[in-house]
């Protein structure tokens, strides 16, 4: 059975560049160049997270907040693996 983790994501659509940043409260700040029109920013978020975490885009599920900048997203990874793939060590280094 695949274990899912639900993460809170704050999206910045229409950014100059794409990036993922872990905020102090554990929220992921995801900046995408796509604008929030016709679901394009949501798709860009899914694609960027999938690429960063070496997942299929279909493994990145937006479960809440489709029309909000704040979204809840399910990933088939545990929290430790997410931090590792972001390059963040347990001691914050």
- End-to-end gap: 32 Å
The overall strand count is 5
Number of helices, counting only DSSP H or I runs of 4 residues or more: 2
Query: Mean pLDDT, nearest integer?
Result: 91
Taken from the alpha-carbon principal axes, the silhouette is globular
Residue share in helix:
10-25%
Strand order of the largest sheet: 2-3-1-5-4
How would you spell out the order of helices and strands? EEEHEEH
Helix- and strand-based class?
A: alpha+beta
Instruction: Return residue spans where pLDDT drops below 50 for at least 5 consecutive residues.
Output: none
Major sheet: size, sense and barrel closure?
A: 5 strands, mixed
Radius of gyration: 13 Å
Per DSSP, what share of the residues sits in E-state strands of 2 or more residues?
Answer: 25-35%
Question: What keywords describe this structure?
Answer:
single chain, about 90 residues, alpha+beta, five-stranded mixed β-sheet
Provide a short characterization of the protein structure.
The chain has 93 residues and is of the alpha+beta class. The protein is built from two helices and five strands.
Describe this structure in words.
There is one protein chain. The chain is of the alpha+beta class and 93 residues long. It has two helices and five strands, in the order E-E-E-H-E-E-H. The protein has helices spanning 40-52, 79-85; strands at residues 5-12, 19-22, 28-31, 61-64, 70-75. Strand 4 and strand 5 (70-75) form a beta hairpin. It starts with a strand and ends in an 8-residue tail after the last helix.
